[in-house]
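Hey all, sorry for the wall of text incoming. These are the three entities for the joint prediction.
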Amino acid sequence: MPQLPPAGGDDLGAPDELIPFQDEGDEQDKGAGRGSAHGDLDELKSSLVHESENRRASASGSDSEAERPPPPQPRESFQKPRDYLAEVVRRQQDGGFFKGPPYPGYPFLMIPELGSTYLPNGALSPGGARTYLQMKWPLLDVPAGATLKDSRSPSPAHLSNKVPVVQHAHHMHPLTPLITYSSDHFSPGSPPSHLSPEIDPKTGIPRPPHPSELSPYYPLSPGAVGQIPHALGWLVPQQGQPVYSIPPGGFRHPYPALAMNASMSSLMSSRFSPHMVSPAAHGLHPSGIPHPTIVSPIVKQEPTQASMSPGGNSKSPGSVKKEEEKKPHIKKPLNAFMLYMKEMRAKVVAECTLKESAAINQILGRRWHSLSREEQAKYYELARKERQLHSQLYPTWSARDNYGKKKKRKREKQPQQQIQDTESSLASKSKKPYVQYLPIEKPCDSPASSHGSMLDSPATPSTALASPAAPAATHSEQAQPLSLTTKPEARAQLSLHSAAFLSSKAASSSSSLSSPSPLLSRPIPFATMTHTALLTSPPSFPAAIPSPQAALAVLQAQPLSLVTKPAD
DNA sequence: GTCCCTTTGAAGTCT
DNA sequence: AGACTTCAAAGGGAC
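and here's what came out:
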């Protein structure tokens, strides 16, 4: 078991104690003695890899090894991202919906290999980007060149099914923001040697010279930015020189660092779409730096919300309203799952014929649960950094600011009443008949089994407390099966259930099981069954409904919930 | 044109 | 403190 950094009580809410990789930015933020986590990152990473492999090895000793698909290629198998890509191509040509290597869909994994594509200034050349495009990696549709000069080069994004990146105002990978400070954490490959002055003796992975990865990266303030070494200083030949050319007054060019390296794309993401960003100063951080989370106030807002400004000032309603209109809509930072979804959506869309997001999300949700802890931890870490970036960009922003700015969903009844009513009206109350988007035996739906990571996360109370993915794994076991087969009302209950379950930290979950609704108590036996059934289930939908008995249980509980969607 | 659906997680509000 | 709600992305579908 790796020695994870002591739980520092992340004020950002991330399950830090479960996240193997910490950055010094946290320590700076919290000022808490969290230990020099970063110094041991490589060791931690290595430990985690070994742990994961050990877990897989031990899991493979279970009764289902023969029926489980072969374990994914360890990342070490791909000495170079190119090899990995070749494998990707091969498997895609095979038509299989493979559970990729430890970091599937991580476009920035390519970056290290693109050493030759780096321009002298550390930027990526378009040539490397084309590699992405040919790979049809959803989020790699972004021509790296566009990130450099915002050249709007003909992006093949439009060639690929409305991939998130298509919407990037500047063709930025939505995760590239996080790539910068995460690349050494998660990259299975190696950054360009000429750009990486340090090489980790253990992993052989070149490491940035500056351990600090986050705080240097974020523009805390216009005046301070220039003093901060860039997180990707290792990408820049000259050390000690600020990566960003910060004008005395701070950033004025929206993307001052884009010409320096693609990593600066951290300031954009798909959320930073053209139509969302007003041409004026809206969307700009006080420092002048736009952030993906900033969108134009054009974003629908309920007028009545204007006077409910979180600030609670005492201005007249009119002025408040105007102020509110001027106020850019700063979106919430994406959580781990959202980041994962964003990254994997296009891939799923490409591999499946499904296009409905609801269906894709179901798949992604299951895939998410199928991820190993380390894989999930990666996204938790990304999300945490995203939040950190967000909080640094907008110190005064609160999620409350966006409350009510989106059309509220119907809340016809109090949850408790819903629970009581759900059973009787489950089939008829729903506006839209529940659609089971995941057809049984759908080839593109092989989340849990393809990787066997359900087995990787044995969701014991100890593990549930030990890793970021563990709660998810626990959640998965408890709620995932039903979450795929319930109507919205039931889902709400399940959320309730799972929330209670999670909040109880698995130890006291029994309390949450004593729900007044049979639906709420159902997950337990079902999950128990699933837990074992998964060991022998084929790599498709049966991961959720592992056996005829399980399917029957679901059907009995929700007779009309298994409405399969007509085939395309 | 707007909202729903669907997913998980974070963070808010409410009790 | 715990329960509950809202929002974040996405895009087809329903209205």
